[in-house]
Amino acid sequence: MEESITMAPLEKLGTNELDQELLTLNMGPHHPATHGVLRLLVTLDGEIVRDLKPIIGYVHTGIEKTAEDKSYWKVIPVVERMDYLAYYFNAMAFCGATETLLEVEVPPRAQYLRVIHMELNRIMSHLVWLGTSALDLGAMSMFWYCFREREIILDLFEQSSGQRMHTRYFQVGGVAEDIPPGWAEKCREFTAVMPERVDQYNDLLANNEIVLQRLRGVCPLAESELLKLGVTGPLLRAAGNPWDLRKAMPYSSYDHFDFKIPVGTEGDNWDRFAVRVQEMKESVKIIDQALDGLPGGAWITDDRKVALPPRHELATSMEALIHHFKLVTEGFRVPPGEVYFPIESPRGELACFVRSDGSSKPARVHMRDPSFVNLQATAPMTEGSYIADLIATLAMLDPVLGGIDR
Amino acid sequence: MLGTLYFREKGQITVAASAIRPTLEHLRGKGFDALMSVHGVDYHPDEPRLGVHYELLDMGALDRLTVKVRVPLADPHVPSVTPDWPTANHQEREIYDMFGVLFDGHPDLRRILMPEDYEGHPQRRDFPIGGEPVMFTIDESDGRSYVK
Q1: Are the C-beta atoms of residues A57 and A387 closer than 8 Å to each other?
Q2: How confident is the model at residue B55 (pLDDT cuts 50, 70, 90)?
Q3: Which among B66, B91, B122 has CB closest to A65?
Q4: How far apart are CA A215 and CA A202, in angstroms?
Q5: Distance CA A389, CA A378 (A)
Q6: What is the pLDDT of residue B44?
Q7: Quick check: A160 and A88 in contact, CB under 8 A?
Q8: Burial of A215 (0-12, 13-18, 19+ CB in 10 A)
Q9: Closest to A355 (Cβ–Cβ): which among B41, B85, B110?
Q10: pLDDT tens digits, residue range A342-358?
Q11: Which of A54, A198, A207, B72 has a CA positioned 20 to 30 A from the CA of residue B88?
C-alpha cells in the first residue's frame, strides 16, 4: 500500500493533543457530490478541512494510447469522449492541431459553423454545471430547468449531425455536413429565449439567502496562486484576470464577433458562479452574430487529399473514387512535426498536442485537459474551510472526470 | 541549448535535461510566466527516446514557446520543475506514470492515472495496445504479474 492511501493523520500538523482528534475521511469514488468518479481523501478536524488529496484514474480508458493506433480522421470520435461535456471542443482541439500540421485552410462557413456549435456546447456544459451545482447546494428544481434548455441544444445537435452527444461533426478541414434547412431558425428560437431564461435562473439563485450564504466569500483563491497552479477558464476570470483565448489568441474566426469577458473580483465561489452564468449570455450573443454573418460556400476544404469528395462525384469521377478509397482505407498522411493547439473550453485552456511521424496515424496525441490541471487548486482553496463548503467548491470548480482521467 | 526550430509560427527550443530549471527560470524573466502544459513523448525507435515538453505562455505579449528535453531510456532522469511551477505537479506525475521519466526533486512522484501496483509504462510506443492481462485474485495468489 502506498502512502497516499494510508489513513494516518498528517505529520505536518504536529503532535499536540488537538491534532490527535483528526479524522481522515474517504469521499468517493462513488459519491453523488464529487461529479463523477473522483475520490477525495479528506483530513478533518471536526468539520474543518485540514488537508485534501484528490485521487484520480478511476475512469482512465487510455484514449491517448488508442489514438496512436488509428488514422487521423478516426481519432476524432475517441478524443470527443474525453471531456464528455465538451465534445465539440475536444474535436476542435484535435482537428485544429492536425490542420496546423497539414497547413489546411478551413473555409469561412465551416469556421462559423464550428463557432456556433462550440458556443451551443459551452451553454450546454454550463447548464449541466449549473443544474448539478444547484443540486449540491440543495436546490432541486434548478436541475430540471437547466436540463429543459439542455434538451433544446441536444435536439439542435441531433438535427445538424445525427447525434446528441459525441457528434463527430467536426472533421479535419471543416465540418461533416452543412446545417439542414430550418436549423438556423430553430437555433434562433433558442437564442431568443435563452437570455431571458438565464435571467430567470439568476433571479432564482442570486437573491436566495441560502445560496448567498453558501457561496459569497467562501473558499477564495488569489489570482497569483491560480496562475502558479496553471488554473485557467472561469476560475481564473472569477479572480479578476480576463484571460480568455477566444479574445487573446483568437482561432476559428472568434475575432469577428463582439462579446464581453465576464470577470469577478474576489475569486470566491460566488464569483465563479456569477462568471459562468454571464458567460452563457455572451455565448448567445456570439451565436446570434455568427448566424447573422454566416458566410456561404463550402463547409469543408476542397483539398481532396484531406476531405472526402462529395457523394455525387463518386458515380461520375474516377479521381473522386480513388481519393475516397484512399481516405477511407489508409487515411491521409500528415507531414512530420509537433504541434500544440490550445482553445478555450468551458473549463479553461484545452489544448491538443499532436506529434506526427509522417504516417497516417498520429505518433502521439495528448490532451492538456483543463479539469486535470484545475483540480490541483482544490486543496489550496478548501484548506481551513468547512466540509460543506468543500462540496460547494467542488461544484464551482466544475471538474469533468472523463477529461481528467482520459 | 541543443537546438532551435521555428515550426508553424511557433518557436521550439531543445535544452539539456540538467539545464531545464535554469532555462525555464530565465524564460520566466523574459515574460513567459505561465507554464501551460507539460507532456511526455516517446520518440521510439530514435535515441534519446523519451521527451518532455514544456509549453510556456507569455500572457502579456501573447506568445507561446515550447521547451523540449530528451533523455535516454537507460537514464530517464529529469530535474522536476514542480518546486518552481506548482502546476507541473500532476503533469509530471502523469509523465512518470505513462512513460517512466523520473523527475528528481518532485515532492510526491507516484502513479496518477494507472493503478498504484501497475507494472510498465503504457504510453511507451513499444507497449502493446490491447490484450492486457486482467488481474484476477487467483493470479495474485499465484504470484503472476501484469507484464511478463
Answers
A1: no
A2: very high
A3: B122
A4: 14
A5: 11
A6: 84
A7: no
A8: buried
A9: B41
A10: 999 999 999 999 999 98
A11: B72
pTM of the model: 0.89
Q: Is the dihedral of CA B78, B79, B84, B88 positive or negative?
A: positive
Output phi, psi for A54, to 5 deg: -80, 135
List CB contacts of A44: < 8 A, sequence separation 6 or more: A22, A23, A24, A25, A50, A387
Dihedral over Cα of B87, B90, B95, B96: its sign = positive
- Tally of residues, chain A: 406
**Contact partners, residue A83, CB within 8 Å, separation at least 6:** A89, A90, A345, A347, A350, A367, A369, A371, A400, A402, A403
Place of cell 488537538: A18
How many Å lie between the alpha carbon of B18 and the closest alpha carbon of chain A?
23
pLDDT digits (tens, 9 = 90+) for A29-60: 877 677 778 888 888 888 888 888 888 988 88
Better-scored residue on pLDDT, A5 or A123: A123
Distance (Å, whole) CA A119 – CA A131: 18
How would DSSP label each residue in B28-47?
HHTT--EEEEEEEEE-TTSS
Instruction: Give the Cα separation of A226 and A248 in Å (integer).
Output: 18
Whether A366 sits inside 8 A of B59 (CB atoms) is no
B34 touches chain A (CB under 8 A): yes
C-alpha cell at A65: 494510447
- pLDDT of amino acid A343: 93
Handedness of CA A387, A391, A394, A396 (dihedral sign): negative
Whether the CB-CB separation of A273 and A220 falls below 8 Å is answered with no
Identify all chain B residues contacting A74, using CB atoms and an 8 Å cutoff.
none
A353 at interface of B, judged by CB pairs closer than 8 A: yes
Query: For chain A, what percent of residues have pLDDT higher than 90?
Result: 46
Question: Is the pLDDT score of A92 beyond 90?
Answer: yes
Cβ–Cβ below 8 Å for A376 and B87: yes
Contact present, A230 and B34 (Cβ < 8 Å): yes
- What ipTM score was computed for the predicted complex, to two decimals? 0.85
State whether residue B60 is helix, strand or coil: coil
Residue with cell 509537433: A338
Nearest CA-CA partner of A89 in A293, A277, A368: A368
Residue A235: in which H helix or E strand, if any?
Answer: helix A234-238
Q: Are B81 and B67 in contact (CB under 8 A)?
A: no
Tell which wins on pLDDT, B17 or B5.
B17
For residue A329, the distance in angstroms to the closest alpha carbon of chain B comes to 21
Q: How far apart are CA A165 and CA A223, in angstroms?
A: 34
User: Nearest Cα to A139, choosing from A131, A128, A149?
Assistant: A131
Q: Is the dihedral of CA B105, B83, A271, A115 positive or negative?
A: negative
DSSP A383: T
Residue B131 confidence class, pLDDT cut points 50, 70, 90: low
Mutation target among A3, A364, A367 for the B interface, most CBs of B within 10 A:
A364
pLDDT in the model for residue A120? 93
User: How many angstroms separate the CA of residue A390 from the nearest CA in chain B?
Assistant: 20
